[in-house]
Amino acid sequence: MRPKYSFGLDGPSAFSRPAADVQGEILEPFFDSHEWEYARDYFTEGPAMYVNRKPTAIGGLEVFGIIVGFIGTCFAKKIFDEVYERTLKRPIGAFLDAFFQKPEVPAGKVVEYRDVIRLEDIDLVVVVRTLVTKESTSDVQATVMHGHRVAHAFIESHGKKAPVHCHTIKGGQIPSEPELFESLEQIKQKDRADAKPRWGQ
Questions:
Q1: Cα four-point dihedral sign 140, 141, 146, 152
Q2: In sequence order, what DSSP letters do the residues of 91-117 get, joined into one string?
């Protein structure tokens, strides 16, 4: 099976316009040139994947916006390993670096990068997320992909504990145990409630 992919942006128009431009310049050509299947609506199906896409203040955090990458694959190790190797090659660092270089992006802004992988065979959504600054773009890809390995190891040992497993990277540290949610929207609601303390600030 071909892995599925999609993108998401959450934030004000001042954020989404340059982010969408860079997505078209860097990410979309990568997926077009590899064995991927674009699924425009796939990631809005099912209660676990639901999230209110209406623009918000993102919980009062000093975050300019959220960039989301979606991948659809399977937990089965052989398939996961193959997709992992393909996913590892995504130009996430180049994408974020180009985004921060856009003249519309004010200096000093922070964005959240969020990788969402749906493991179709066990009906589980895994989220790995981290904050990114202009100075930290080169480390994002490796850190996030290591987060997926940690997430996969947890599932191998403990199984599916909720519809959504979420690993939030703080200070470069990846928690071995995920936070558990019913949907992506529930993560958003918890962000509003927790605000800055969730990032250890």
A1: positive
A2: -HHHHHHHHHHSTTS-TT--EEEEEEE
State the pairing for strand pair 124-132/164-168. parallel
Local structure of 85: helix, strand or coil? helix
pLDDT tens digits, one per residue of 118-160: 888 898 999 999 999 999 898 888 899 899 989 999 999 999 9
Cβ atoms of 108 and 36 within 8 Å: the answer is no
pLDDT at 176 over 90: yes
Q: What tens digit of pLDDT does each residue of 8-46 get?
A: 888 888 888 999 999 999 999 988 877 788 887 766 667
Tell me how far apart the alpha carbons of residues 156 and 169 are, in angstroms, rounded to a whole number: 20
Phi then psi for 56, rounded to 5 degrees? -135, 180
Count of Cβ atoms closer than 10 Å to residue 101 Cβ: 12
Q: Token pair of 68, please?
A: 């989301």
Within 13 Å and on the Cβ side, how many CA atoms surround 178? 30
Report CA-CA distances (Å) from 26 to 70, 92, 93, 122.
16, 9, 10, 31
According to DSSP H, which parts of the chain are helical?
13-22, 28-32, 77-88, 92-101, 137-158, 184-194
Q: What are phi and psi of 4, to 5 degrees?
A: -95, 155
**pTM listed for this prediction:** 0.85
